[in-house]
Amino acid sequence: MSRYVVRRLITAIPTLLLISFVLYAILSLAPGDPLSQFAANPAVPPEVRDNIRRSLGLDDPWPVRYVKWLFSLAQGNWGFSFGSRMQVWDLIKLRIPSTLAVVGIAYLVSLIIALPIGILSAIKQYSVFDHVATTFAFIGFSVPTFFTGLLLIIILSVKLQWLPFIYDSTLQVRDLGSLGAQLKQSIMPIAVLGLFQAATFVRYTRASMLENLPQDYVRTARAKGLAETNVINRHVVRNSLIPVVTLIALSAPTVFSGALITEQIFRVPGIGALLITSIQNNDIPVIMAITFTFSFLVVVFNVVADVMYGVLDPRIRYD
Amino acid sequence: MTTTTVTAQDLVRLPTLTERALRRPARSLWSDAWRQFQRHHLAMAGVVVFALLLLSTLIGPLLWHTSGESIDYGAGLQAPSLQHPFGTDDLGRDIFARALLGGRVSMAVGVVAVIIAITLGTTVGAVSGFFGGRVDSLLMRLTDLFLALPQLPLLLMVTYLFRDPLRRVFGPEVGVFLLIVGVIGVLNWMPLARLVRAGFLSLKQKEFVEAARCVGASNRRLMAVHILPNTLSAVIVAATVGIGQAIITESALSFLGLGFPPDVPTWGRLLYDAQNFLDLAPHWAIFPGLMIFLTVLSINYIGDGLRDALDPRKTQ
Are A140 and A195 in contact (CB under 8 A)? Predict the structure, then answer.
């Protein structure tokens, strides 16, 4: 097992290298000029602009810059942001807490909602509950998150005026009042992301349960005289959740992409918002850092999913 | 049928399964699938809704004479009325007309992006599964690589960075259209490639392929005429659902302000413009949003119905 993990991690390295190269190439070959803000500014003479260009290392051809970028990354240095003259990592570090809080809680909420609904709806297949659940799940993953978000704002903030519609990141939780405010402003972003994710999980859990329910081992368990709750909880659910766990690992990185949109709707100043402004300013080091981190997450969670599959399902052997 | 003599025995004996199958009118694979599809009521409802939406975006702008471009500051942010069924935006433009026009762009993006993705996915999957060996492992590595690319961030990046040069070459609308459609297509072929590959791997071992090979069919003919039609159900389902996904992706891009330019009113762009007026003009966001939602929902139900209809295990 551990040998398999090590081997998977080693094969992930060339993939990541290739991805970083592709991303860097796209960014460098794009026609925009990172110094275009200065070009329009008459107060910055051309010599100064050239100096800035040199100081940012933009004089080298891009393959050279890529290799330099790679080496400094290997030493844990993401480089400097062109736009704000800050370390890229410092810039990202400021944004991580709000994104992680929203994404993490939304993911948890979606699991807490989706797993029981998916399981129940499979056990009571074709019941009213099942119909309602599957319909909602179907609708849930057909509504784009940006529409649910705007609808929630219209209903809960504009019409009912229960919740604030802009996320205030300067809010610090000091007492009960500010804790309440923090909860209030987090409800909508979490709900939008969580419900969308929950819809996918419900469908998947239900399908997986339905695949397991008619199997022989379930009949055996019943024939032994086990109580139905035991048959379901100890036998069917355990086996059905194996593919679901894999899906949970695989979709973790995509939730971050979903956060891009939620952050735009509710003006949460997270990683997604940082990515959008950096793209607009052609701030290559920051774009590179964020997109590469996304790919890194995808690759890592792929390995995690495969490994978990092996841990949970003893029929799978990695040798 | 020639003359048949009916004996008393025939009248009593129930027809066997084979006899019943022989007596019923001839059915083709497609009519079977259609029969099965009709039983899926929600899928049928999806077809109707989607057809209506498609027709209204195609013909609607010809019938609805209020312009979506004419600016009238006096009539800004009006609630829906008979004159403006979806209300007006901050410049007094008719949102109904804009939503119809925008629908054309959104639908076109969905369809063309899917055509690109399907072509790529089917080709890669077919070649990979048919030839196997080195080609297969190389193509599958490529598939894995594409799967690990962060889709939405990459889309944002590429459309924003390459928007201007393409706009200069092809004009503002066509340039951005080609760019968005191309990028969505190129980033979405991987799951289908895997499905088609799996189909080819199992089908190429079958006797009918061997027989065709013995008769002298070329590799290309084997792939296109003998094996590919058998994987078609996966392709059709993927294509249907893919249109909805592509429409969502395009809307998301425009919603983030990085898709089509402001003068092209796609559904996502309308939402982007509407989000600053949610308090004064909620209708501005609700109607285009509903159009996206209904389109995607009906497409997904059609996909669901097709999946059931084309699954040979479920037909009878």
Answer: yes
